[in-house]
Amino acid sequence: MNPVNYLYLAALLFTIGATGVLIRRNAIVVFMCIELMLNACNLAFVAFSRMHGNLDGQIIAFFTMVVAAAEVVVGLAIIVSLFRSRHSASVDDASLMKL
Amino acid sequence: MSAQLAAYSTSTGEAFQFWVLGTVAVVGALCTVFMKKAVHSALCLAGTMIVLAVFYLANGAYFLGIVQIVVYTGAIMMLFLFVVMLVGVTAADSLKETIKGQRWLALVCGLGFGILLIAGIGNASIKDFNGLAKANANGNVEGLAALIFTKYVFAFEITGALLITAAVGAMVLTHRERTERAKTQRELSEQRVREGKHVPPLPAPGVYARHNAVDIAGLLPDGTPSELTVSKTLRERGQIRDVSTEALSDLKALEQRAEERLERTNSGEGSK
Amino acid sequence: MENLIALLIAAPLLGAVVLLCGGRRLDAVGHWIGTALAATSFVIGIVLFADMLGKNAEHRAISQYLFSWIPVGSFQADVSFQLDQLSMTFVLLITGVGSLIHLYSVGYMEHDERRRRFFGYLNLFLAAMLLLVLADNYLLLYVGWEGVGLASYLLIGFWQHKPSAATAAKKAFLVNRVGDMGLSIAIMVMFTTFGTFAFGPVFDSVGKTGEGKLTAIGLLLLLAACGKSAQVPLQSWLGDAMEGPTPVSALIHAATMVTAGVYLIVRSGAIFNAAPDAQLVVTVVGAVTLLFGAIVGCAKDDIKKALAGSTMSQIGYMVLAAGLGPIGYVFAIMHLVTHGFFKAGLFLGAGSVMHGMNDEVDMRKYGGLRTYMPVTFVTFGLGYLAIIGFPGLSGFFSKDKIIEAAFAKGGTEGWILGGAALLGAAITAFYMTRVMIMTFFGEKRWQPDTEGHEPHPHESPRSMTIPMIVLAFGSVFAGGLFSIGDSFVHWLEPVTGHSEGNSPVSALTVTLATMVLLVVGAGIAYAQYGRRPVPVVAPRGSLLTRAARRDLLQDDFNHVVLVRGGEHLTRSLVYVDHTLVDGVVNGTAASMGGLSGRLRKLQNGYARSYAVSMFGGAAILIAATLLMRAV
User: Fold this and answer.
1) In chain A, which residues have their Cβ closer than 8 Å to the Cβ of B159?
2) Residue A77: inside a domain
3) Are strands B225-226 and B218-219 parallel, antiparallel or unpaired?
4) Which of A72, B237, C379, C444 stands 20 to 30 A from C543 (CA)?
5) B-chain residues within 8 Å CB-CB of C623?
6) Residue C382 has what pLDDT?
7) Which residues from A are below 8 Å from C606, CB to CB?
8) Full-model pTM
9) Where is the signal peptide (chain A)?
């Protein structure tokens, strides 16, 4: 098996995650899909790391994880406060950008 | 496994592992997207993440594999579940699309994007894999540490600052300053008396032989459920179960069953 | 002595500032302050004049540098004055006649509650006019030029409560702007051509400049002169300017300001001498105007407007003379001075008549006034004799010289110009005799005014008659004084130069012809107005009369050509603007609006919709990258 397959898998997972972001309305699920996309990227980085024979890809993946953790913390806090004020976790309900 | 082999191909064991676990990961991802309940989505995502952790390990990223399990699956996904519980675990989403054409556009874009991405990877024609044998010679964790604390030290420090900011931000977002003193039990009861309603304690939730839960409203004398009997949090989530008609339908079902049985005995007698 | 020059201007300027800023507390004495300061300026003028007479002709010109006004690189404008014989003549005329008219106004404006302001404006005018004639460069002259324009505007519209006065002031101002534009452009051309606009350097470098440029400058200066001096084609404002108080008409619109154009042409003689084409145009303008004004003057029943036509005509004479070059410069100025005396006297006389007749201006409602106001009659009569050129009086000397000079121009032009001037003299005799007869002779024709007040003609107060008497003396003797031994010619010659020319006809012939025409003109007038009673309501009259009553259709001409033309131009521009420009603009806006209305639908507020477009964009980017790699 060629390790390139890991990259194909990453691409597939990323696309599934992105599509999920587009079609789900529940903010928490949307958020999970974003996490899925980030994980797909991490997989690609790890595969790249193996491909190039150095650890830089793993470092980037590590940083991605840290940033993802920070993002989850803030994002979930936003969802909680949104839910508190609007009693809903639907991203469409927050369509206040439209007049 | 020789280093030469690692450059071009992997062991059969890894190939087998990839095809089995890869399928699991894709199914998990699809379930994450298409499950109606957020809890199920979260569990499926956790499964996918564990599969990814295994892949990390297979790719020589031992540290990341462990971190993936401990931090991602263990901490972050649990945070997700925690929030799901907070927001309402039973609130199933309707998957019906509300924005016209959104689903089609999303599918077209997703398909196009995926095909293009995969075509791009195929187009890149990556042949040689160097393998991490040399890089991991002193141990994966040591190698990572050497990079993080030398080459990437500034990024690392800035990431630390980002984490602190995120923690403070989350607290600021969710924290609500109490502007007035919480009322004591005594004050609450005095207020109730002054306002003249609900002078006695609030009614208890419905207690039935077959249901005994806080999410079932107690029935008023005329048979309608009283929302007062259910906790405020559940009321706000809309998670009150209405069982007021269940008793009647149960009775109807009972009568029907009894009739069926009686008829059968009647017919049995008749045949005798 | 040089330092006194600035004082000439400073005195009336101080008066203007004090009177205009002093407020009501000066109401009681304001007119005397104004008169005293004008007289101060006159006394300074006399002192300077005496000083000048004591010097040789070559050393008479003096100058005073006050301060550097706009020093910007090569653009050096100074406030400095030059007092030579030409300026001196004007200074004496302006301050002398000005002081007399100040004195006259004390009586004339006695019942006007804004008299202080009136005197402030008069002083402002004096200051500006003196600045105009004393400036030693064109830019400073321009300041004075605009200053007198402003004073003229303020004084014509002094009775601003009358819509006609306000309109007349506006008209004078606007028409003058056209001429001022000529002067300002002339100054600009001068600066680009000569690098300076001071009189001396400009005139010195005339010889080194092409004739075309000089002709252009000359024509622009002529345009300026036409505006200020009411020459054809910018003459239409002068008749309406008679809406102003009579002393204003006498001072500004007869004796001084309207002659500024003549001063400009004579002062710029060096330029005109080198540009014969411009000179020819000047003479043509002068000849046309002198006939034009005379014809208008024949038809007007309003005494002041008849005199205004006469002013126009007389200035036409001066411009004609000024256009003749060195043959005529001296006589232009000489006629200017004598005209200043007798026309101011005539206007003051007219003012005196109006003063006695409840401000009635229609001569058809006068008649037989000689017994009621004898002083006015005598002074007016002397002015009349002077203007028609009765032998021995001022007009005789100065006008005769101009006619002679016109013939001396030589060639066909000389005959045409001389003929026009002779004809003008005959018409002058006609219309002035008409004014004289209709006002002072014949039977009484006055009627009660609309409020039923029967006019009681009476002689004017002393403060009004004294200036009239003084001016009458001037009208009688000035011409003779100037002509004895050609004293005026010798006086001005160092500045303007002089040449006799070679007249095809002798001076005696011209004089005799003038006399004959004078008698003919006066005789016709007598036959028409003296022998027969004058109808109170004007008869319909011939086509020419009717046209002349309407100022020979000058306003109609302006209306049709300029106003209508402007309106049509504006309308067509508005049409183009509405259809083409607005069409393009509105069309663009509408199409943008429509497009936006459709694009707006994309902006539905749903974050997921936006995410789709982002995602699609990312897909397109990948496609583009792949395509680029493939290519």
Assistant:
1) 63, 66-67
2) yes
3) antiparallel
4) C444
5) 112, 116
6) 92
7) 91-92, 95, 98
8) 0.62
9) none
Query: Residue A7: inside a domain, yes or no?
Result: yes
Q: Which two tokens stand for residue C188?
A: 């600009």
Residue carrying structure tokens 């006629």: C335
Q: Is B101 exposed, middle or buried (0-12, 13-18, 19+ CB in 10 A)?
A: exposed
- To test the contact with chain A by mutation, choose from B9, B20, B33 the residue with the greatest count of A C-beta atoms within 10 A, namely B33
Write b or e for each residue in C14-24: b if 16 or more Cβ atoms lie within 10 A of its Cβ, otherwise e.
Answer: bbbebbbeeee
Helix (H, G, I), strand (E, B) or coil at C135: strand
The number of distinct structural domains making up chain A is 1
Residue among C152, C147, C155, C150 nearest C109 (CA): C155
B104 and chain A in contact, CB less than 8 A: no
For B60-171, list the strands marked E by DSSP. Answer: none
B246 Cβ neighbours under 8 A, 6+ residues apart: B211
The answer to whether C625 faces chain B, any CB pair under 8 Å, is yes
Paired tokens of C259: 């002659």
C308 touches C257 (CB < 8 A): no
Alpha carbons C247 and C176: distance in angstroms, whole number:
21
CATH value at residue A33 = 1.10.287.3510
User: Region C163-183: what's the mean pLDDT?
Assistant: 92
Residue C82 · residue C61 · CB < 8 Å: yes
H helix intervals, chain A: 4-23, 27-52, 56-86
Instruction: Tell me how far apart the alpha carbons of residues C187 and C185 are, in angstroms, rounded to a whole number.
Output: 5
- Cα radius of gyration (chain A): 17
Task: With CA atoms as reference, report the closest residue to B136 among A53, C388, C486.
Answer: A53
> pLDDT tens digits for C522-565?
999 888 888 888 787 777 778 777 877 777 777 788 888 888 88
Per residue in B44-75, is it b (16+ CB within 10 Å) or e — as a string? bbbbbbbbbbbbbbbbbbbbbbebbbebbbee
Does residue A74 lie in a domain region?
Answer: yes
The yes-or-no verdict on residue C190 having pLDDT over 80 is: yes
Say if CB A45 and CB B47 are below 8 A apart: no
Nearest residue, CB atoms, A70 vs list B10, B97, B162: B162
C616 has a chain B CB within 8 A of its CB:
yes
> Domain for residue A40, yes or no?
yes
Residues 22-81 of B with CB under 8 A from A: 22, 25-26, 29-30, 32-33, 38, 41-42, 45, 48-49, 52, 55-56, 59-61, 63-64, 67-68, 71-72, 75-76, 79-80
Return the partners of chain B (3 or more C-beta pairs < 8 Å): A, C
Domain containing A15 equals: 1-86
As a whole number of Å, the CA-based R_g of chain C is 30
Task: State which residue of chain B sits closest to C614, comparing Cα positions.
Answer: B109
Convert the pLDDT of each residue in C309-320 to its tens digit.
999 999 999 999
- Residue C447's CB is within 10 A of a number of other CB atoms, namely 13
Give chains near C: 3+ CB pairs under 8 A.
Answer: A, B
What are C451-485's pLDDT values in tens digits?
Answer: 767 778 888 888 889 999 999 998 898 888 888 87
* Backbone angles phi and psi of B91, in degrees to 5: -70, 95
Residues in chain B, pLDDT under 70: 1-9, 88-95, 125, 127, 206-212, 237-239, 243-244, 267-272
By the CB < 8 Å criterion, does B129 face chain C? no
Joined together, the tokens standing for residue B267 give: 């017919």
DSSP secondary structure, C368-385, as one string: -TTTT-HHHHHHHHHHHH
* Residue C235 near residue C289, CB atoms below 8 Å: yes
- The per-residue pLDDT for range C19-38, each reduced to its tens digit, is 999 888 888 888 999 999 99
| Per-residue pLDDT reduced to its tens digit, C375-401 | 999 999 999 999 998 888 888 888 888
